[in-house]
Specification:
400 residues; alpha/beta; Alpha-Beta Plaits; Rossmann fold; 7-stranded mixed β-sheet; 4-stranded antiparallel β-sheet; 16 helices; hydrolase; HAD_sf; magnesium; EC 3.1.3.3; amino-acid biosynthesis
Length: 400
């Protein structure tokens, strides 16, 4: 055997976390002819687990290193585990993915099911990190050696069974580079449907709601259904639009999501089968960069029961996404689309990442991933941003 063959020493420290543990260990190790091959550290509820993989050549006095590391552990009142081995170069694993799990609550059975499916596909979990504890629990797993499409299908089935949300995305720089968010408005960015709020004022809510529901499920042509519903509003005083605008409520977490991602230079767009008379106010309030929606025709202070211009339908939403990306100078692969109805399907499928938000079954099945909790800001977790990072940025802004 070659006398200079490289060997390894794995040191694992476990115990109460406090400042200076990592620096104390590395100061001690710096006295020896070692190189650092890998480091991993995690803190859970104040308890630290620190793993350090060191490389050394055969013939080195590793007994002295061992004794020194044990003295550090004793001084810090921590547990230590040491093991030696050979520094084998691990083959590069293909199919690197991020698997994000959202649960409210997230139970052990769900994690067991997810981990079991990953294992069954011959993949390996390389790293696990918690991104959020509230308003939902979010765990992200770095996975390698998996077929993305096969694993996504398996985890989607497991998510339904376990009543959690699971997203599977390719790893790499492109995940961090998504720079345009395109959102549906009704029942996504805001709570409820604007046309139904207008129908309340016109006294035709039941008729409009039935058509809206069928259109959302994809049972009716959107443009025809929109014109049919708008026709029922003919004669309604335009002041009803102001009343509806005053009643609008953003989805829980919407403002946090927009504020957080705009800090990271994301561009935001809204595209709606609803009406500019409402979306224009959202653009101003939230600082939205691009928008597209239909426009209600108004004459002599009354709604005519018609819309002007070309209707923003399913194809129109996808075209708007592509137009916004061009204007922003952003590749389609770096866009995220969020929606809930059949009218959003083309847009979700065109985007780099399509997210079905509290969506109809047909939309959940077609999208890249689904979020079924009533907090829009959970979307940031799918982009690898933790709750702690969001709260730290908010705190920094409040001090400014």
């Amino acid at each position: 055997m070659d006398g200079s063959a490289e060997r390894t020493l794995l040191i694992t420290l476990t115990g109460r976390d406090r400042p200076g543990v990592t620096s104390r260990l590395f100061r001690t190790l710096s006295q020896f002819p070692l190189t650092v091959a890998d480091v991993e550290q995690v803190v859970i509820r104040g308890r630290l687990v620190l793993g350090v993989l060191l490389a050394y050549t055969e013939g080195a006095d590793i007994g002295r290193v061992w004794n020194a590391a044990e003295r550090v552990a004793n001084d810090l009142d921590m547990e230590i585990e040491l093991s030696t081995g050979r520094n084998k170069r691990m083959p590069k694993r293909s199919g690197r993915l991020h698997v994000t799990v959202l649960g409210n609550p997230l139970k052990p059975a769900a994690m067991a099911g997810i981990a079991g499916r990953i294992s069954a596909h011959g993949a390996n979990i390389d790293r696990i990190e918690r991104l959020a504890q509230n308003p939902v629990t979010c765990i992200e797993l770095d996975v390698s050696g998996a077929d993305p499409d096969g694993l996504r299908a398996a985890l989607t089935a497991e998510a339904v069974e376990q009543r959690v949300d699971v997203a599977v995305q390719h790893s790499g720089l492109h995940r961090r580079a998504k720079r345009l968010i395109v959102m549906d408005v009704d029942s996504t960015l805001i709570q409820g449907e604007v046309i139904e709020l207008l129908a309340e004022h016109a006294g035709c809510l039941d008729e409009v709601a039935k058509v809206t529901e069928a259109a959302m499920r994809g049972e009716l042509d959107f443009e025809g259904s929109l014109r049919e519903r708008v026709a029922l509003l003919a004669g309604l005083d335009a002041s009803a639009i102001d009343a509806v605008r005053d009643r609008l409520r953003l989805a829980a977490g919407a403002r946090t999501m927009v504020r957080t991602l705009k800090r990271l230079d994301y561009k935001f767009a809204i595209v709606s089968g609803g009406f500019t008379q409402v979306t224009d106010a959202l653009v101003e309030d939230l600082g939205i960069d691009y928008s597209a929606a239909n426009t209600l025709e108004i004459q002599n202070g009354k709604l005519t029961g018609r819309v002007t211009g070309r209707v923003i339908d399913r194809a129109g939403k996808a075209a708007a996404l592509e137009r916004f990306a061009r204007e922003a100078g952003i590749p389609i692969s770096q866009t995220v689309a969020i929606g809930d109805g059949a009218n959003d399907l083309d847009m979700l499928q065109a985007a780099g990442l399509g997210i079905a938000y509290n969506a109809k079954p047909v939309v959940r099945q077609a999208a890249d991933t689904a979020v079924n909790v009533p907090y829009l800001d959970t979307i940031v977790f799918l982009l690898g941003i933790s709750r702690e990072e969001v709260e730290a940025a908010d705190a920094e802004d409040s001090r400014a």
